[in-house]
Amino acid sequence: MNKDMKILIVDDFSTMRRIIKNLLRDLGFTNTDEADDGQTALPKLEAGDFDFLVTDWNMPGMQGIDLLKAVRADPNLKDLPVLMVTAESKREQIVEAAQAGVNGYVVKPFTAATLKEKIDKIFERIETPA
Amino acid sequence: MVDTTRLELANEFLDALEDGDNDHADEVLAAIAAERESRLFEEIGKLTRQLHDSLSNVEAGSELAGIAENQIPDAKERLNFVIEKTENAANRTMDSVEEILPVSETIRTRAAQLEEDWSRFQRREMDVTEFKKMGDELVDFLGELRTNSDKIHSGLNNILMAQDFQDITGQVIRQVITVVQNVEESLVDLVRKTGVQVVPKKQVDLIEAEGPQMNAESKDHVVNGQDDVDDLLSSLGF
Fold it and tell me: What residues of chain B lie within 8 A of the CB of A94, using their CB?
């Protein structure tokens, strides 16, 4: 896994973005950028060469699930790995996210170990395609 | 509809008049008047009850109006205060953590280096110049360790102090809970007095974002922690 990969963190709460940023840095990922909802995230994704997207679900403006769908619908972004980190915990929502093509789903509150495990799993799968 | 009571009384009145029994005729006439009066009282009673009910509703309404006018904006202000307080606390904590992390990283790196040097010395792989250098570094490191421990100590104290939000926000949230309870009671009261039919609860939208779930353990449509999420996803072939 490339530790220099560019990661976009999307959450409407600056404190949660800061937590995720710190945890990612602890895992060795320092090349991060932030956005506070889908609407601000999408232009960044379209413009920048991001390798990984970590997004919340419940945000004003454009929600995370819609951002995920928009990413999958964009020919340039459709293969971008997406990890959802959210307090949304209804079974139907998780199924919806899975069907929309999410690569991992972490429910808040989460631990540093969970975040690491999910990121490892995502890139393990990408690097060793079945 | 034939009013039999009054008809009977009227016939009795006529009979009395025909018989020339004026006293009885007066009695019957009084009875007719009394009967009429009692109907009037009954009507007045009904009206009074209606008036009372309307007034009570207005009272409940004005109570709600008072809550809407004063307590709700006040509650909103209080909840915004909670957001502000918790956000400040989180940032203060993370400020300290971000200060402490590089300090502990420095300690770790230097300690590892000295450990390695010491091993080399024990294996007699070190000449006198190097040994003297290691001695100087060791002294440096110990001095640095003392300063860095102070930094860590003060950072941890800051983190401790940042937790004071819990007490303050707890009190504020409790006040807001009281407001919510008042609103609930007034609404229930209003519904009871007006006899409005309570519309059955609308079905939950299973995709709509709701934020954190309360009492997740007792809800079947909600996962209970990361293990549940992982089980669900693996059942979907993830």
Answer: 223, 229, 232-233
